[in-house]
Amino acid sequence: MENPQRLYVRSRPGRLEAQWVVGFVDGEGCFFVGINPHPEMTCRFQVLPEFTVVQHQRDIQLLYALKAFFGCGVVRRNREDRMAYRVRSVDHLSQRVVPFFDEHPLKSKKRIDFFKFRRILQLMMQGEHLKAEGIERIREIASSMNTGRGR
Amino acid sequence: MENPQRLYVRSRPGRLEAQWVVGFVDGEGCFFVGINPHPEMTCRFQVLPEFTVVQHQRDIQLLYALKAFFGCGVVRRNREDRMAYRVRSVDHLSQRVVPFFDEHPLKSKKRIDFFKFRRILQLMMQGEHLKAEGIERIREIASSMNTGRGR
pLDDT value at position A148? Predict the structure, then answer.
């Protein structure tokens, strides 16, 4: 029988292929927009878009490969034995993550969350998250995301 | 805002690309070998290898796309609102699923389960699952699979 450790060392992920990233994110990715109270901001709320991929720590090298692939984001502990690759910068999300998934569409229903996520980023680029009305609009879109995934 | 339903209709998965399948299975796939008591068989045990991908029912079309991609297997309800694509035939596993992942290696630690799965299929092709000693060897390999994934 093969020695799994040896095989592991031999087959590091290296540079990822675009379609692998799409398939993996279709399975494991999450597009999320948090809206938190923030007394110091004009409209009292802060909009926090986030692209995340969570994995068991034994596959942390895949998260670093994603970080290298997108050229942005961080790898941090999520909770317990799970790690997360996370992009929170609006610039990085708009200039790197969104264009990638525009060019290489997700195949799962997760793409509907992606469309909403992209729309919220557009509204933020227009400064809508700094107005009470814009916040309401963003909140409405965000509240319809990540529903019905059954987990 | 885009109409998600329209976008969904527009972007059916169609024919999958190999690397998408690898990425998706790295995230969502499972290689499992069940060993069940079976009084009618010579060695009293039946070895049941199985390749499975489970998804929320809203992405059932991806499971049918996988079925078309591998040209084998079935799509069935798993439990509650989740569906499963499943290949159980030893011939289909040996001739279609295993060669695909030999040619397009998994990037996650799931490939260690795949190597064990492939080894068990080889032993079955040699008839080892029909001998008490072979069953013990298979049981030993199978018991070390799907551990430490943290879910």
Answer: 54
Domain ranges, residue A118? 4-143
Assembly ipTM:
0.86
Judge whether A65 lies within some domain: yes
Instruction: Report the pLDDT value the prediction gives residue A16, as an integer from 0 to 100.
Output: 93
Q: What does the pLDDT read at residue B44?
A: 82
Question: In whole angstroms, what is the distance from residue B130 CA to residue B133 CA?
Answer: 9
CATH number of the domain enclosing A126: 3.10.28.10
> From the list A1, A26, A151, which residue is nearest B119 (CB)?
A1
Is A29 contained in some domain? yes
Q: Which two tokens stand for residue A1?
A: 């029988």
- Determine which of B6, B9, B15, B19 to mutate to test the interface with A (most A C-beta atoms within 10 Å): B19
Tell if the CB–CB gap between A23 and B18 is shorter than 8 Å.
no
* Per-residue burial over A46-83, b = 16 or more CB atoms within 10 Å of its CB, e = otherwise: ebebbbbbebbebbbbbbebbbebbebbebeebeeeeb
Q: Give φ, ψ of B77 to 5 degrees.
A: -65, 140
pLDDT beneath 50: ranges in chain B:
1-11, 150-151
Look at residue A5 in the predicted model and tell me its pLDDT.
44
Nearest C-alpha in A relative to B81: A150
Task: Say if the Cβ atoms of B112 and A62 lie within 8 Å.
Answer: no
Low-confidence ranges of chain A (pLDDT < 50): 1-11, 150-151
Q: How many domains are there within chain B?
A: 1
Give which of B21, B77, B107, B112 to mutate to test A binding, by max A Cβ within 10 Å: B107
A133 within some domain: yes
Would you say residue B28 lies in a domain? yes
